[in-house]
Design a protein that fits this description.
419 residues, alpha+beta, Hypothetical protein af1432, five-stranded antiparallel β-sheet, 10 strands, 42% helix
Length: 419
């Protein structure tokens, strides 16, 4: 019989491998660019950064004791992570994002109109056109494979009056983007996109007075809200031509890894990989969106919650990869600097994750000024000689800034170094 328990093993950074989970460093965490303490190594870039900072690190391992032979072995668990990444498809951006923007915009608008029509149709008790769903999701996947940044920037333009439709579309976009990072086949990405696109269709069976209630739910109202998962399964199972996984995701995207979710209290491997992905993206978008009953959380705070809930609510490896996908300071968000200047984050720096590149819109005297680039990696200083840092990040609309007019310019500037 085998007994396993987790231990920390100190190893030199030269021995690091993709898939290991780093729990401690030999230098202060706050002196590094890693915002979260404890993370998986997903690529050589992470390893190289640690090698430039540390001499040794502590990795999480499984201590396995075999009773029959009294033999103790240590496993870093890297094989478990490699099962996610092995034999994956490696995608490269085929076009600059600003050149993809026009196609992405047309696809985004078509998809938003379609999901709105589907919700109206289903509310009337009618079936929707599955072929149209497959067509628009195929276009979304095509855009993301050419360059995911265009649709991701468009998804930042949120309208609180169109939350349900836009939410489903954003969950589709970011689920497919995460699937792209995982190296899924294009056919798998289309099935994943359809699953994200239709995951909340069961909410058409929830009364508006519950769905849009501005205050806390009563126990009875919460049970009504939770029923949308079962309604979603029943609605989609009656539609011919949908991938079966879309039915599963509608039914299980509120399950939790620890078994504390609903409606069936599934746990661990009983929850499909697609449902785990949609669960994370669904939660992130809900937290970062304005609703009738709450203000939007910042992206950083939302990612921190996902980080803290990994292994409890969310799949730990997928949560780590999603956090990396979004980034500590995501492009397209509004940045407030310690100098008082405000602008749009146009490029994240992988080597210095806390020092993105900013397109300044508002100067330190709170005036709209000529747009200029502020590169925080150069450690610029303010009028008093203090190094300018990023103070906090806000969603689109903060300080009266609408990113829409800056989309093409922002995307062009963000990728100008890569062309």
């Amino acid at each position: 019989m085998k007994v396993s328990n987790k231990v920390l093993v100190e190893i030199p950074v030269s021995d690091l491998e993709i898939g290991m989970y780093v729990s401690k460093l030999d230098c202060p965490w706050e002196d590094t660019s890693f915002i979260y303490q404890g993370f998986f190594l997903y690529d050589n870039q992470d390893i190289q950064e640690l090698q430039s900072l540390c001499k040794t690190v502590f990795v999480q391992a499984e201590k396995e004791v075999w009773d029959e032979k009294q033999k103790i072995t240590l496993s870093t668990g890297k094989e478990r992570v490699r099962t996610v990444t092995q034999e994956k498809v490696t995608y490269i951006n085929k076009v600059p994002a600003y050149r993809e923007l026009e196609k992405a915009g047309a696809t985004y608008n078509e998809a938003k109109q379609l999901i709105s029509n589907i919700f109206t149709t289903v509310k009337l008790g009618k079936s929707f056109n599955v072929a149209e769903v497959k067509s628009v999701v195929t276009d979304i996947v095509g855009s993301i494979l050419r360059n995911p940044n265009a649709l991701q920037w468009l998804a930042l333009i949120k309208n609180k009056d169109e939350y349900t439709a836009e939410h489903c579309l954003r969950v589709c976009i970011f689920s497919v983007s995460l699937g792209r990072e995982l190296g899924m086949l294009e056919s798998e990405l289309i099935d994943l996109g359809i699953s994200g696109f239709l995951h909340d269709v069961g909410k058409t069976r929830v009364p508006d007075e519950v769905l849009n209630k501005p205050g806390r739910f009563t126990a009875e109202e919460y049970e009504v809200m939770k029923s949308h998962s079962t309604h979603g399964k029943n609605i989609l199972i009656s539609q011919s031509g949908l991938p079966p996984i879309a039915v599963d995701v509608a039914y299980t995207h509120h399950e939790r890894i620890d078994g504390g979710g609903y409606p069936r209290k599934l746990s661990g491997h009983k929850i499909s990989n697609f449902a785990r992905i949609v669960c994370i993206v669904d939660a992130y978008d809900a937290m970062t969106s304005v609703r009738v009953y709450k203000t939007a959380m910042s992206s950083l705070e939302s990612l921190r919650i996902i980080f803290e809930e990994k292994g409890i609510h969310f799949d730990p490896e997928l949560a780590e990869l999603f956090i990396k996908l979004i980034g500590v300071y995501p492009t397209g968000h509004i940045a407030e600097l310690t100098s008082g200047e405000v602008g749009i984050i146009i490029k994240s720096n992988n080597e210095h994750r806390l020092k993105p590149k900013i397109l300044r819109i508002i100067d330190c005297q709170n005036r709209r000024s000529k747009e200029t680039i502020i590169d925080l990696t150069t450690d610029p200083v303010d009028a008093k000689g203090n190094v300018i840092r990023l103070k906090t990040v806000h969603p689109n609309g903060a300080f009266g800034i609408d990113i829409k007019p800056y989309l093409k310019k922002g995307l062009r500037l963000s990728e100008s170094e890569d062309e």
